[in-house]
Amino acid sequence: MGKHNEFGKEGEQIATDFLLKKGYTISYRNYRYLKAEIDIIAQKIKKSDKPVIVFTKYGPFTDNSIKNLYYAGVAAYPSVGRAVRAARFLVERTKIKKRLGTGDNK
């Protein structure tokens, strides 16, 4: 496995641990839809609040010039748009399964 893959896995695990410590449950890891991937999907349900679902796309910056371009709005990542489409698909699929009465939402 390449060094960048190991670095990415470590970052995803740190993000997962953070969400777990904050009381979230992890619904999916590395959810794929077409060419998209969502690294972590977590949810938190409180008795008095509406459910909160978190979709994360982990992507650490290792080069300051890329980071500066991103914050300036010059650089964007096509994977973000794909991840949004995947999240929408998952939400709609879950709604359909609930309407059909199937217990498994995965």
Radius of gyration: 16 Å
Largest sheet: 3 strands, antiparallel
| Strand order, largest beta sheet | 1-2-3
Apparent shape? globular
Helix content: 40-55%
Could you tell me the number of beta strands?
3
Number of domains: 1
How would you summarize what this structure contains?
With 106 residues, the protein is of the alpha+beta class. It is 47% helix and 22% strand. It is built from three helices and three strands; from the N terminus they run αβββαα.
Structure keywords:
106 residues; alpha+beta; Trna Endonuclease, Chain: A, domain 1; globular
Question: What does this entry look like structurally?
Answer:
- With 106 residues, this protein is α+β, with helices and mostly antiparallel strands.
- The chain has a single domain (3-100), classed as Trna Endonuclease, Chain: A, domain 1 (3-Layer(aba) Sandwich), CATH 3.40.1350.
- It has helices spanning 3-21, 64-71, 78-100; strands spanning 25-33, 36-44, 52-56.
- A three-stranded antiparallel beta sheet has the order 1-2-3.
- β1 (25-33) and β2 form a beta hairpin.
- The longest helix has 23 residues, at 78-100.
- 8% of the residues are buried.
- The model has no long low-confidence stretch (mean pLDDT 75).
